[in-house]
Write a structure and sequence with these properties.
By secondary structure, the protein is of the alpha/beta class. It has 28 helices and 33 strands. Bound molecules: NADPH dihydro-nicotinamide-adenine-dinucleotide phosphate.
Amino acid sequence: MKTRIKEIYKTMEYGPAPEDASEAIQFLKKYNNKFNLFINGKWVTPSSGEYYDSINPSTKEKLAQISEANEADVNKAVAAAKKALPKWVSIGAHQRARYLYALARQIQKHSRLFSVLESLDNGKPIRETRDIDIPIVVRHFYHHAGWAQLRDTELKDYKELGVIGQIIPWNFPLMMLSWKIAPAIAMGNTIVLKPAEATSLTALLFAEICVQIGLPNGVVNIITGHGSTGAAIVNHKDVSKIAFTGSTEVGKIIRRATAGTGKKLSLELGGKSPFIVFEDADLDSVVEGIVDAIWFNQGQVCCAGSRLLVQESIAEKLYKKIRARMENLRIGNALDKSIDIGAIVDDTQLKTIKEMVQLGVDEGSTLNQPSWACPTEGYYYPPTLFTDVSPSATIAQEEIFGPVLVAMSFRTHKEAVKLANNTRYGLACSIWTENINLALDIAPQIKAGVAWINCTNVFDAAAGFGGYRESGFGREGGREGLMEYLKPKINESFTDEPLPISTNNLDTPNENGQPSLGIDRTTKMYIGGKQARPDGGYSTVINSAKGDYIGEVSKGNRKDIRNAVEAAHANNKWLNMTGHSRAQVLYYLAENLMIRREEFASRIVQMTNQNKTDALQEVDLSIERIYTYAALADKYDGHVHHTIHRNVTLAMPETLGVIGIICPDESPLLGFISTVIPAITMGNSVIVIPSEKLPFSATDFYQVLETSDVPAGTVNIVTGGKDELAQVLAKHDDVDAIWYFGNNEGCKDIEYLSADNMKRTWVNYGKYRNWLNKAQGEGQEFLKHASQIKNIWIPYGA
Ligand code: NDP
């Protein structure tokens, strides 16, 4: 008997357990399987008159026809959103909260319809849409109904941006819609959203839900179409922000297209996330983690753990277990409740996966696939493991976006970190070990926006999600995500012209036409803690505001910038100091500046012909500003997010790395201090281009730096042509961020050139701050731009 049962278990086949699709089919039929655009609360035929097919990837059958929106339709949708904006703002936080709550409730009530429709349209297993995608969608609307309610109290220093353009991909269609729409409308914005061409159906069902709950017309507009429709949204002048999720390639196109326009941007792009397994990990849990990391959603996940890094001592054992698990995975129609893996979204994507796998084989890696064959009626691809992969192999570097795991081994912890960071991306990482000390030692060392410890692919509305490096910037979820849809109210007080200064003629030049201060020397640059002569051997004459000769500064070039970047990277000391230690150095810096108060004030007078009292005030404010950041150095904390999972999620502000700072021309000392000090407070090293016209306050500051225990390489100063040097910095691949204060043309160049390695940029779009005003010239906004948040998920509690 015993043997028979064992025998039956071994030979027993799963029968199909199909989900009933009739309600979803009914929904499609209601529209005659042909969908128009949802603009201003109504269904509108596309101006082009063109439609394209939406296909069920599980069967290749046609589901519906979708409208192709063109520029005229985008104009209509943006106009509707713009018209709806004032009322949506004026109804207030509580009314908006009610609408968001109603959306959450209504989606929840129709959750199975959404799940089935999503599985039909995308090919992802119903088990996932039912248990993961749609519950996360509902959670997002509930969570943001709460934020809508709290908007006027918790975020009173911020205001909405206006009309938001949102472009989403096909891998999590409704989930990405909820991540974009919920925070945007909760904060009082109105939106135009474009779903991906392959997966528009649940967005169109969502439009119907908007009508059902009586959402005011024009608050949400959904227009379907291809990349050109997305581009028309990006380029529309009345759109204040673009929120995009998709490929890094298109992300770069959008960065360049919006350069200099003042449009806010958040980009959630590709990844090649490491899944790191140490030898003491629980290997059976690891195997299930791998299933979730790379075979969940057929591996079409931006944060998929697609690079398995495993400690050499257990590598073969783990590979064996993975192969056994792959053999047992079931693939098939997305509506079958007993399958693990569904269909790839379309034939183009399937072709890409096949080509990448062939490339892996051609490059000499070993292919492992299960013995069973995939169904032939849809776009299926089997779970795949590559072993014997070199870290430089194409499949180890490029995103495959399919169920393909690429494995490499490491010996030491250091090597694991090095391999993990050997990528241009930085979206997520997953760390597996039973040793909490090891896990928490590794997590901060990985350059990624999310770190999952002994778990993977966990998401929640309360925690931020987003990347480092070429995985993009901005966060979705939690308080961090709200900031993407708001701007500080103080921005409205910036001006088109610099603040006038009071000048006098007290400090007249002496008989020789030379300044009376006696500090007229040619200043060198400051690189790696040393004064450095310019590579080109040129100097530039600096005259005072009255046109008198003051002195000369070195004319820096590309080579000097390269040296400065190298020096900044060599400086690990500052990076690894605690906030407390950095604070002490900053206080010391302030103290040393205080000793030279008179001298710095005279220098300002000499350059600007400003009256001495005001110059002294600028020095005093500079000292005070350093105090402010010294105070904040150990107080700019992160958060602990209360997610719905059995985790504690730490949102830790981390250093960006190396920041290029192009200083403002106004307030020569205070402008320099107000930008450089917050950047270094967060542990960054900086390359500073001081004001081209008034550089001496910055160059005099070397001596203060030298006497204040600031480690070499923390602050590097390169003088010379502002825009020429700024462009070199913007193009440099080892610079992580750029802050630019200058004219609008310069801002545009910086944003455009920074797209290559997706630098974080912070530019002033030609507007002027009053640096003397604390509300404009200092504060946490500066620290926010000097850091990025890593969300670390740690198993916690019951
Ligand atoms: P895309 O980046 O091309 O598409 C994402 C979204 O952007 C879609 O809605 C797309 O429209 C739209 N779009 C395309 N071109 C433009 C443009 N010039 N301006 C504005 N919007 C545009 O991704 P794909 O769907 O082509 O997938 C290609 C690769 O991207 C995948 O293999 C994968 O590597 C990566 N990817 C990453 C995702 C992530 O979550 N990070 C998600 C999806 C893909 P439409 O699709 O209608 O043409």
